[in-house]
Structure formats: structure tokens, C-alpha cells
Amino acid sequence: MNILLIGSGGREHTLAWKIEQSPLCKRLFIAPGNAGTALHGENIQIDPLDFEEVEYLCKVLKINMIVVGPEQPLVMGLADHFKGKRGFADLIIIGPTKEGAMLEGSKDFSKKFMKRHKIPTAGYETFKKSELKEAKVFLKSMKEPYVLKADGLAAGKGVIISKSLSEAEKELELMLDGKFGQASEKVVIEEFLDGIEFSVFALTDGKDYIILPEAKDYKRIGEGDSGLNTGGMGAISPVPFVDEAMMQKVIDRIIDPTVSGLRKEKIDYKGFIFFGLISVNGEPYLIEYNCRLGDPETEVVLPRLKNDIVELFQACGAGKLDIIEIEKDPRSAVTVVMVSGGYPESYEKGYPIEGELKTKKSNVFHAGTKKSNGSILTNGGRVLAITSFGKSKEEALKKSYATADKIEFKDKYLRRDIGFDI
Prior knowledge:
Layout: E1 2-7, H1 10-20, E2 27-32, E3 42-43, H2 51-61, E4 65-68, H3 72-75, H4 78-81, E5 92-94, H5 98-105, H6 107-116, E6 124-128, H7 132-141, E7 146-150, E8 159-162, H8 165-176, E9 186-190, E10 196-204, E11 209-211, E12 216-217, E13 220-222, E14 226-229, E15 234-237, H9 244-264, E16 271-280, E17 283-290, H10 298-304, H11 309-318, E18 332-340, E19 354-355, E20 363-366, E21 369-372, E22 375-378, E23 382-390, H12 393-404, E24 407-408, E25 412-413
Parallel strand pairs: 1-2, 1-4, 2-3, 4-5
Antiparallel strand pairs: 6-9, 7-8, 7-9, 10-11, 10-16, 12-15, 13-14, 15-18, 16-17, 18-23, 18-25, 19-24, 20-23, 21-22
């Protein structure tokens, strides 16, 4: 089977690493990939948002399966592009149609979907610029802190939590005036939920689903969960407080109603659903959906998955996930992300990465890297994700930090408290 993997981050390196292990994978291509994905397949330098170019590539390389890593190609309709196309009837695409991807592409769409299917979530209302007066009245009816979310995709930066009403009103005006471009043409004002967050991932064929290992990620740049939001500074799996009873609540109240809701609404969905959850006094609430795997959670979830991932993808494409049983590694996995100094704001690229990039003690997954003249260089904010196993979370952490300390690049930064809070 010839497989095309779309994306270029740590999630895609982890997917490439996992896909390569499958005897069902004959050739693996990654578009555009990074220095790490090149270790497991062939990087192809094309724009994954140019669907005509992707189609041409699939014809030339005789691709049997497309696995989509990031959200933007899905929200823009990559899966839809191939529907009904001559020569692609048997092509398996792991990723939903444009309508299904709206679960992530529009906060307003997803909140309305949750409401229709009685999925527990925070109370909310959505407003556009012409409704600024009404939005401020609604803000005043809420308790502090105030949660404002850009309706569309904003590269993980579209959520503002304000501690005062005056600050929230100012942020609301800025957002509706284009702070996040088209993404904040509409703003969702949401009730603040006080609890501890975690993530659950399902792979669905539209009627059945399988659940992958759960995870918890760490979004803030600073230790003690302080500072600006990032794409993720680390992750752990399993999550100590997500026991059997909690998972059953998540299944009954959130996952089952979501998949049955997609089916009832005739939304074509074959791919991953990320459930961003929060436990409030032991009860799960859904914060958000993503239409793909999370990052850096993928870097702990897939290493713990013992199944052949290509076999899972084939079953997903054939609508036969009901016959699959998931096997999980019982050990703890911990990912520590190494980032460029200045991230998530401005930072420099192109610094050489030196040290122990290959070790039996950890998996070193590349995110923002590139190869140039035989050297590996930094090429993004999040540069590397170091994943290690241990009999305990603490043992795994110790290994990841030991590996990270043997890798150097100018202005490197990492949080030293991943997993310490639970």
C-alpha cells in the first residue's frame, strides 16, 4: 500500500514513525514533512492546500491512502475534493469531509452541535460585529473570568480568558475588529469552567469507533501553567485521574452522542475526533472538538498504541471498526517539547541542532526542523518532542529530561514541570 501523509509537525513525524512499522505500508510519502519524517519515508515538497497538486501526486505515485495530520486541509475540503473523482473510488482518506471538519473549523457550529445532541458543555452565545452592544450585555450577565473564542481557526491562539469585565470588553472589540482576521468575524462568549483538562481520541468510520489512549497536554509557555498559550509544551499518558468510571461517563455522555449525532445528521466522517475535555468536580464536560489528532498528545498516544495503525485505517475506510480491539502499552509515556526562544511570539529559525537526536532511551520526534547541507536546523517555534516510557510517570519524565539535556540549539527552552500537577 502506498500512503501519503499530509503535514510537517511533531504529530506527522509520530504518524510516519508508526505507519512505517506496518507491514501493510509499501511506500510512505510525506507532504511536506520535516527532517524527522524523512527518516521513515520520502518527503515531497508540495503545498498540501493545493488540492490539484495533491491529486496529481496521488496519480503519479499510485497512492492508496491519504492520512491528513493538520486541520486546515480538512476544513478547506481535501476529502471532498476526491469524492466522485475518476480513478479514486478505492482511495482511503483518514479525515472527515468539510462539513465534518466544521466541528473544529467553527466554534459556533460545534457548540450548536453539542446543544442539539445534549452533550455537556459550557453555556455560551455567539456574536458578530453588528451585535457588539448585545455581546457586551451578555458579557455583563456572565461571572468572571470571561472566556472569548474566535469562531474560526486561529492557529491555537484564538482563545482569550479575561479576569475583569473591562478587559473582556476591550478584547471583544479587538477580536470583532479583526484581531484574528476572518477567524474572529464571530466570537463565542463562553461560561468559564473550573476544573482539570484532559484529551480523549477516537477513530470513527461514521457508525462505530475505537478509543485510543487518553492524554493530558500542557499549553502554557511558563512553568506552573503561566504565560501565553502555545501549541503545547508537553503531554502525559495515561492520565491518573481518568479512571474506568470517568471514561465510562465520557463514552456515555460525550463520545456516543457525538458519533450518533454525526450519523443522524448524515455528516460523512471517517477519521479522528479529538475531544478536549475538562473534569469539573469529577464530571466531564466537552470544551472543544478537533477533527484530527492533537499535538503534542499524538507523541504519547501513538507510542502507547500497540495495534498496527495502517490496519486500523483500513478498517476505518471499510467501515469495519466494530471488529477492532485496541491494545495499549500499560507503561507511562511522557513528552517534553523543546522550543525556540521567544516562542510563541517572535523567534529566530535556522540554528543548528546538535547532540543526541538518536537514542534508545527516548523517541525524538521532530516538529519545526529541516535538513540543510547535512545539518539539522531549527525551522519553527516547537522544534522537538522528546517521548520516553517508564513504569511510572516520574521515571518517564526523568528519561525525557535526560535526553533533552543532551540536545542543544541556540536559545532552546523547555518546561521543567510537565506532569508535576497530577
